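Morning - 6-O-phosphoryl inosine monophosphate inputs below, output right after.
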Amino acid sequence: MAVDVLLGLQWGDEGKGKIVDVLSPKYDLIARFQGGPNAGHTLEFDNQKYVLNTIPSGIFNDKTMNLIGNGVVIDPIILKRELDNLKKSGFDPVADGKLVIGRKAHLILPTHQLLDAASESKMGEGKIGSTLKGIGPTYMDKTGRNGLRVGDTLLVDFKEKYDRLVNKHKSILSHYGEIPDFSEKEQAFFEAIEYLKSIPQVDSEHFVNQYLREGKSVLAEGAQGAMLDVDFGSYPFVTSSNTTAAGACTGLGVAPNKIGAVIGIFKAYCTRVGGGPFPTELFDETGEELRKIGHEFGATTGRARRTGWIDLPALKYAIMLNGVTELVMTKADVLSGFEKIYACTHYQYNGEKIDYMPYDICSVEAKPVYEEIAGWNEDLTGIKTIGEIPEKLNAYVKYLEEQVGVPVRYLSVGPDRVQTLTL
Ligand code: GDP
Ligand code: IMO
Ligand code: MG
């Protein structure tokens, strides 16, 4: 058996949560492999909407086990809140034995969030637009070999380790100015740590490989998107982890030759939250319409998402980086009613026409060159069979498949789990 990987191909919010939920009945284990509560994965069924930040999107399926992998960074306060909210809705994955956590996953401390905020506040125009969840500083402590891990919470010297790290943070914070009072947050942190201890801890590398040895199926769930990858995204306007397929290997402990299908998700158009280059961004009424019809407001921070047409050079790049074997196109319904839609095939850059993301995209404009495509008018949200797909939408899908060379296997036509077609 192999680990299939599902990940976003744009700048996040492609609909990963919804599609993982849809696919989860096919899998014995869903494993989150990177990112933290900067993620907001939304899924809907039975007229209920759920937003998950840390917990894998397989928890609503009765038979699926869920793992928070070693590559994830965990804010115990947010994790506890997520689980409390789920309990209120009648779901208790801990009591049901459906959630385990990698003991090598790193912990986000209240002071990591202060560092995130302090760093952003000093950046002015150039700020990244971080979700302020402490993601960057936590990964910095991980690679700087100072971090605290989930397994440390069970060690006798946890508090000492915590104090040592917080003292280091305080000395950094003092360079930014007065250190805000975080005593309440700290108290909530330690309460949440006690709660965290009730979740079974595993070594994700052994846990996942045991599943494979037993012939069980595993789906690795990505967060963010390929264009936010710390190595290959629009650096420095990226997140602090490898969001691409290789991140599933390090974030779970799976060898590259154990990776199976790579399922890449993209929206029928494009969005981005936070700062950084976005060549196809629309600043006009069309952009506003996409935001309104697509409800493009962040699931984690509520910020308005920037909107634009699909960017094929970026999409092809993401497909190459991830070795995508099949595609999922979401939010096709949002484009209904646009007379013309546009696909960016190239950029005009330094007086040249190019079809790749240039290195200096953060400082030199890459102006999109578009192909015009006929839109469709039909409401898609009620369609149940592929025979009902409007001809012009079929043509758009076919056009994209030809451009990127990978088949679209699933088409999403609304936020609900049932609004998904297999092509
Ligand atoms: P994720 O971070 O990739 O899981 O995506 P988000 O949950 O942040 O953002 C996707 C948003 O689009 C959520 O509000 C989903 O409920 C919604 N959504 C997902 N697929 C579709 C779709 O096909 N059509 C529409 N209209 N909304 C969708
Ligand atoms: P999901 O999993 C969209 C963006 C932030 C910011 C940059 C860095 O829901 O797709 P960070 O808090 O990671 O330091 O922020 O990355 N960002 C996301 N944008 N969806 C996400 O996650 C994101 N996670 C981070 O807006 O620009
Ligand atoms: Mg999201």
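Note: The mean pLDDT is 97.

O.
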